[in-house]
Amino acid sequence: MPVLTILPSGKTIEAEQGSRLLDAIIAAGESIPSKCGGEAKCGTCHLFVQEGRKSLSKTTRAENERLDSIVGVGSKSRLACQANFGTENVTVELLGFDSGR
Q1: Are residues 20 and 81 in contact, defined by beta-carbon separation less than 8 angstroms?
Q2: Residues 36-50: pLDDT tens digits?
Q3: How much is the pTM?
């Protein structure tokens, strides 16, 4: 099972292959906004994938369109509601505080 590491807290959790990144973050006890119910309509679950990006599912058209409308998006940006785990470990950085530098 892939392991998710969440920054800046450093929490880790095992995730099922194929499960959503958003669900694993919530299961780890982290607070992450998601106003649209995981439909890539609001962009509030935007985060940075620091390691393991290639292990996540490919970015969909809906996700790309939403990311294009968000300020501060970079090459490591994903929406947690749209990214599903593959087989490799993943490290993400939740935005806010000092993150996103």
Answers
A1: yes
A2: 989 999 999 999 999
A3: 0.91
